[in-house]
Design a protein that fits this description.
Number of domains: 2
Largest sheet: 11 strands, mixed
Order of helices and strands: EHEEHEHEHEHEHEEEHEEHEEHEHE
Low-confidence stretches: none
Oligomer: single chain
CATH topology of the largest domain: DHBP synthase
Number of helices: 10
CATH architecture of the largest domain: Alpha-Beta Complex
Distance between the termini: 50 Å
Helix content: 25-40%
CATH superfamily of the largest domain: DHBP synthase
Structural class: alpha/beta
Shape: globular
Length: 349
């Protein structure tokens, strides 16, 4: 397949190019597009064959639900059985933005899109190019992240092209994603809302709006045997080719342990990378040192995480050691992605 690549400036959107992308979706094709979180791989959410194509392009398990992206809050009405009051409260506070809500689906949404579930995940991106594309595509775009399943999600078109060139019809290059981590997912199908995937919208913020919000036990726990209700819950995700280990503990002890492990790996002729914070980067003695940002700015750490994991692949890194991060606020999302990428391989000091 010949994949067409177009560039779109979010502040000066070329409507003719966006119309071309929209037509591809309406005709059953696939288009990768930028959002504020990561790049998405879009197909017609109401076309079961389009959803099958998405799974095939990614090599994604078909029981892993897709997120339906909309550009108008009123478009929820057609794809859910009932728009709950909780959903309206969250939409008023966080939409458009990096929040996905799960509600009971209507018959218009095929089971191929929802991974066989009777619920549908819905998001309304704030990214202007994404919104324009969704409208041009008919209003309902199913989109997981635009990467080969299991690899780190792409936050720039460079990595979308690396994974999807020749697999899909078009890639919209809209520059780097601002946030760098996938959306927060909250399940509203039960009596009590449940956080299924942490993201830029934190559980603390959700509780400010809804009051009681439970947190799914699998978010920071590797023992997940249940059928996934949301993307990224069941399978190993976000993983680089190299073996990733997280080292947790007091700062000086973590540095000492990572230095020990790095020297040991290099003696075995392994190429090693250390994912360090700005505060500790100068303390590491060997390996490729990649500073992810300051602990005082978790937004930067979130933004840099997938880029660093992708760079490790580009540089043929064999072994990766990473410092750990706080599990509150957006740190919960950072640790969730790191743990998934590491297959929950963590050393506690």
């Amino acid at each position: 397949m010949d994949t067409k690549i177009i560039k779109i400036d979010e502040e000066n959107i070329d409507e003719a190019l966006i119309s071309q992308a929209g037509k591809i979706i309406k005709n059953g094709g696939l288009v990768a597009f930028p959002t504020e979180t990561v790049y998405g791989l879009g197909g017609d959410a109401l076309n079961r064959e389009s959803s099958k194509k998405i799974y095939a392009a990614k090599g994604r398990p078909s029981d892993n639900p897709l997120i339906v992206h909309i550009a108008d809050i009123n478009d929820m009405d057609a794809i859910v059985l009932k728009v709950k009051e909780n959903a309206l409260k969250l939409a008023e506070r966080f939409w458009p933005g990096p929040l996905t809500m799960i509600l009971k689906k209507s018959d218009r949404v095929p089971l191929e899109t929802t991974g066989g579930l009777d619920s549908v995940a819905i998001r309304m991106p704030v990214h202007k190019t994404a919104a324009a594309f969704i409208k041009a595509a008919g209003g309902y775009v199913a989109a997981p992240s635009a990467n080969i399943s299991g690899k780190p999600s792409p936050t720039s078109a460079k990595y979308v092209i690396q994974d999807m060139d020749g697999r899909i019809d078009m890639i919209i290059d809209g520059g780097d994603s601002g946030i760098g981590l996938e959306s927060t997912i909250v399940d509203l199908t039960g009596d009590i809302p449940v956080l299924l995937r942490p993201g830029y919208i934190t559980v603390e913020q959700l509780r400010e709006v809804l009051g009681n919000v439970d947190v799914d036990k699998t978010i920071l726990d590797g023992d997940c045997k249940e059928r996934p209700k949301a993307p990224g819950m069941k399978y190993r995700h976000y993983a680089p080719k190299g073996e990733l280990t997280i080292v947790e503990g007091q700062a000086l002890a973590v540095v000492e342990k990572i230095n020990e492990l790095t020297h040991e790996a290099e003696r075995k002729n392994k190429k090693v990378c250390v994912i360090a914070t700005d505060e500790n980067a100068d303390s590491y003695e060997a390996g490729v040192i990649k500073s992810i940002g300051s602990r005082n700015d978790e937004d930067i750490i979130a933004h840099r995480l997938y880029t660093i994991l992708r760079e490790c692949d580009d540089e043929n890194i064999d072994v990766i050691y990473s410092e750990s991060f706080d599990s509150a606020g957006i740190g919960q999302a950072i640790m969730n992605r790191l743990l998934k990428a590491a297959g929950h391989h963590m050393i506690h000091i």
